[in-house]
Write a structure and sequence with these properties.
With 405 residues, this protein is α/β, with parallel strands linked by helices. The protein has seven helices and 26 strands. The strands form eight sheets. It has a six-stranded mixed beta sheet with strand order 16-13-17-21-20-18, sandwiched between helices. Helix 1 crosses helix 6, helix 3 runs parallel beside helix 6 and helix 4 crosses helix 5. The longest helix is centred in the last third of the chain and has 19 residues.
Length: 405
């Protein structure tokens, strides 16, 4: 039977999801959350004309190098001068203070001198409106400054505060249970049997869920028994998970029990096995009111499946674009012909050497799906289409970035 193409598998998954409901969180808790609606300014910023510098608020028409100005008061930040400025008058003003009525220019203190009689004389004549920040210079009330689906970063929180948001509508985080499976697995730092290995991809997948804006739910390690697997499934249901991701047990071996155990709990399987390397044994379906993704047990296979299927799933739940963000690069090394599976090769992308040139991408020499060190070293994946022919150095290829450094 023909293997399911990668794009069809991804579409099958995404056709089962829609944007999750919104919730209201305090601004301080909104960092890296996703906005659930367009957010418009609730006030104008600055709300009044203000000074950008310490100095003297003046009427530009009164300024002359041989003309003294009468100092009639001061305006520190947070306290405006309460009277209108009359002809020949000035007010000592400090950065951030509202401009007095009638004033239209700031004579900065470096360009002014205080006379013996206490009056102020300009040493230089600024342009009209110099050092004045008009009301609404930054933004005006009602302006939409943050779009729905935006990940709220540090600068966005500062902006939201100035827009007068104490609370923010955000999309609820998808809750995703992560279950490692296999008698061969032990937790880092625990007693490790002579025939065991340390569980690793559960930590990587859970961290990637959090990076993407989801909420990972640690379901631990299930032994190769139907009882253990079903107990983990109940735990995921009790934690109100939107999805459960299993790691391992997705192949055809005697001890690969995930599919068998979940079938007894009502699994509706949409597909099993896809035309991809690494990641061929991927499973997808629904069970216990949750989406179910069965990732392969090899660490790199599960991490690559996370980029190609879990990441678009989470982004769709959060109302963000789910397209796989491919870019182009020039091959730095020759590649042999590909078989019937879409291939994702760990690689290093190097910056372009000249203006208008493409970056260069170098596939790592060893691509075994158990090798996490090479995955951590790689900053991208080279995508090769099924049946791609041999590619020479300099050939343009598609690249999926894993990180930006």
């Amino acid at each position: 039977m023909a293997l399911l193409p990668v794009a069809d598998a991804r579409q099958s998954i995404l056709s089962n999801v829609s944007v999750l409901p919104e919730e209201i969180v305090p601004l301080v808790d909104a960092h890296l959350r996703v906005s659930a609606a367009p957010l418009s300014a609730r006030r104008t910023q600055p709300p009044f004309a203000t000074t950008a510098m310490d100095g003297y608020a003046v009427r530009h028409a009164d300024l002359a190098l041989d003309q003294d100005l009468e100092l009639v008061g001061e305006a520190p930040a947070g306290h405006r001068f309460k009277h209108a400025l009359l002809a020949g008058q000035t007010v000592r003003i400090f950065t951030g203070a509202p401009l007095p009525e009638g004033a239209d220019t700031i004579l900065i203190q470096e360009d002014a001198t205080v006379r013996e009689n206490g009056k102020i004389r300009p040493l230089d004549i600024p342009q009209k409106s110099a050092f004045v920040r008009p009301a609404g210079l930054d933004f005006k009330q009602g302006a939409v400054l943050i779009e729905a689906g935006s990940t709220l970063r540090a600068a966005d929180l500062a902006l939201l505060a100035s827009m007068n948001y104490a609370e923010v509508p955000v999309v609820r985080k998808p809750r995703i249970g992560v279950l490692a499976t296999g008698d061969e697995l032990a937790m880092p730092g625990a007693h490790i049997g002579v025939d065991q290995i340390v569980a690793s991809n559960n930590f990587g997948v859970a961290a990637r869920i959090a990076e993407l804006g989801g909420q990972p739910v640690d379901l631990g390690i299930a032994k190769d028994t139907e009882e253990d697997l079903l107990q983990a499934l109940k735990t995921a249901e009790a934690n109100q998970c939107d999805a459960i991701i299993t790691l391992g047990g997705a192949s055809v071996g005697t001890h690969d029990l995930v599919q068998q155990a979940f079938h007894s709990a009502g699994l509706s399987l949409s597909f099993w096995k896809i035309a991809m390397r690494p990641g061929k044994p991927l499973m997808f379906g629904t069970v216990g009111g949750m989406l179910f993704l069965g990732f392969p047990g090899n660490p790199v296979s599960s991490m690559v499946c996370g980029e190609l299927f879990m990441a678009p799933l989470i982004k769709t739940w959060l109302g963000q674009p789910s397209d796989i963000p491919l870019r182009q690069a020039a091959l730095g090394d020759k590649l042999s012909a590909n078989d019937q599976r879409e291939d994702y090769l760990r690689a290093i992308l190097k910056p372009a050497e000249g203006l208008g040139q493409l970056p260069t991408v170098h596939p790592l020499s060893r691509q075994d799906s158990s090798m996490l060190a090479s995955f951590a070293k790689a900053n991208c994946l080279i995508r090769r289409a099924p049946f791609a022919t041999e590619a020479d150095q300099g050939t343009i290829v598609d690249v999926l970035m894993l990180r930006s450094d």
